[in-house]
Write a structure and sequence with these properties.
Helix content: 40-55%
Shape: elongated
CATH class of the largest domain: Alpha Beta
CATH topology of the largest domain: Sufe protein. Chain: A
Radius of gyration: 23 Å
CATH architecture of the largest domain: Alpha-Beta Complex
Order of helices and strands: HHHHHEEEEHH
Number of strands: 4
Number of domains: 2
Number of helices: 7
Largest sheet: 4 strands, antiparallel
Structural class: alpha+beta
Strand content: 5-15%
């Protein structure tokens, strides 16, 4: 009889603990501050860089005074508060196809990472990319660098993404 009372009491306590447990999902909004969408100009992936959006840099580029430096200088971009710089990374070849990302920077802060090319080896690649790319993007925004963990089950996608992101960041600081 004592065993039955202890078993029922333990079961009731365990059930109460289980029902009172609250989960908390860490999403992209928790990992990084929410930024309003930036107004970036059209990008030529082949060129790897877009025109700056600050009025001063656009004015300098329009006058022909060091137009090449106006589009590539991170220090000029950092000096203007509303400027953004969008840089396309190198196309990284993976076992399942190419991977290329584009990064948008406001000063030295990564505000957006978008995928220009992704692996294309059928429906399995599509499923893996749909699962892995949002996680990689969230981690890149939280880490503010390309030093992020690979997604389990998406080794090739992760590797291509990270390498392309690092090349874009290297171009932005060059």
């Amino acid at each position: 009889m004592l065993r039955a009372v202890l078993t029922l009491g333990g079961t009731a306590a365990g059930l109460a603990a289980l029902l009172s447990f609250k989960t908390h999902m860490v999403g992209a909004a928790d990992a990084a501050p929410v930024m309003p969408p930036s107004t970036s100009s059209a990008t030529s992936p082949a060129a790897g860089m877009s025109a700056p959006t600050s009025a001063a840099a656009t004015h300098a580029a329009g006058k022909g005074k060091n137009a090449a430096a106006a589009g590539k200088s991170p220090s000029m971009q950092a000096s203007a508060a509303a400027s953004t710089l969008t840089v396309a990374g190198a196309v990284e070849q993976t076992q399942y196809g190419p991977m290329q990302v584009q990064v948008t920077l406001a000063g030295q802060k990564i505000t957006n990472v978008s995928v220009l090319q992704r692996t294309n080896d059928g429906s399995e690649s599509d499923q893996i990319d749909a699962f892995a790319i949002p996680k990689l993007t969230s981690e890149a925004l939280a880490a503010q660098s390309a030093k992020i963990d690979a997604v389990s089950g998406a080794s090739y996608t992760s590797s291509g993404y990270i390498q392309s992101l690092q090349s874009a960041l290297d171009k932005a600081t060059a």
